[in-house]
Amino acid sequence: MKIQEKPKDILENILRQYETGDKVLFQLRHKSMLHVDLSRGYQYLEDGSLNESYVEECLQKAVEVYNFMKYSDNLLVVYEDSYGKDNEAEKKFLESTLIGITEYDTYKLKWQFPINKDDLPMHRDEEIYTCTRHIYHVKKVNIEKLFPKIILSDIGGEMDFCSSVFIIDINSNCIFHLYDDRGLYLFASEERYLTNVWGEFHDSISRDNRDFKIEVNNLYWIDGKKDDPDDLCLHGDIEVIIGEEKLSCSCTASAAALRMLKTLSEDHLLTKGEQMLPCCGFFMIPNETLDEVEISGCDNGVDWTVLHDDGMIRLITEKGNTVYIYYLQYKEEVLRFVNVVEEYYKKSLPKNIPADEFERNGYIAFWNEWNRRRG
C-alpha cells in the first residue's frame, strides 16, 4: 500500500524548487513572480463608508487571475498565523471553504523580519516571532467564499487573513497568494507558467515598463556601412532608459546584446573594458570548448550594474540611480533587443569566416554562447 506523503513534506519539497528553506511564506521571493493589482480605485467613499464597487472589482480580478492559472484538483492550502495569535475563528472559516480535505498538518516555526544594516536602530525589528502553520491537502477551494474575507481583512473586515493564505498547485508548484485588497502574488518555479499571465494581465502588473527600455536607433557595420561580410561585429546607436536616466552610446551592438544575455542568469558589476554598451567589442577570446567567449574592448562605453536581488532585478547606473523591475520584465526587454540584433545579421550577407584559427574560434564561440543563453 502506498503511504501518502504528509502535507509538511510536500510543502518542503515545493519550497526546495524555489531554492528556499522553511520560512514564512509572505517573505518568499523568486525571479519567477508577479504582482497583480486588483483595482485602481479607492477603498472608501467620501462619507467614509466602504466602497462596495471597489471590493467587487478586487474580487472579480482575483477570481479571474486564479481561474486563469487553471489549478488542478491536487492542492495545498497553507494558512499561516504568523504571530501565533491562535485565530480559531479564521481557521474554522478557512476550513469551511476547503473541499475534499485528505490530509492536515500543523506545526510552529520561528521567523523574523530581515535586518538591513542601513536601517536606523529605531526602525529595526529584531524580535523573533513564532508562526503557527496549518497545511491542508485538498481538491478544491471555494474562492468565491474565501476571497472576499481576505480582501476585506485590511479595510474593516471581521476576520484577519492579511498575508496569511497561500494556495499551491502540487502538480505545477505554482503559488497563488491573495494578501488583501491591494493585490496578489503569483510564484512559479518555472517561468513558463507565468508568461501567459504576463501577457493577459499586463496592465495590472504593478511594475512600470518605462523603468527599463532599450531603444535601437540605428544599426550598421564598420564605417557606417549597411552591409559588410568581413565585419563580424554589428555596431549601432543604442539608448537605454533606466528610470528617469537616458544612457546613449554608439557601441558594438552585438557585444552589448550578448552581455545583456549573460545578465539573465548572472550579476554584472561596473567593469572597465566590459561595459554593457561597449565602444569596442571585436576582440573575442573563446574558451576551450567554444561555448563561451570573453569580449574585451577599450575603456570607453556606457555601463551600469545588474543585480539579481530577492526575486527582482536591480539596475544601478553610474550616477547611482536605482530601479527595481521584475525578472520577467527585464528578460522580455533584453530578448527584444537580442532579437533585433540577430535579425539584422540574418538579413545581411553571410559572413566571411576568418582564416585565422583564433579569430574563427572566437566568432564560433560567440554564436554558440548566444544560442545557448538565448534558449
Automatic annotation (TrEMBL):
Sequence ranges assigned to domain DUF3885 in this UniProt record: 43-207
A Pfam family the protein falls into: DUF3885
Protein name: DUF3885 domain-containing protein
Organism: Acidilutibacter cellobiosedens
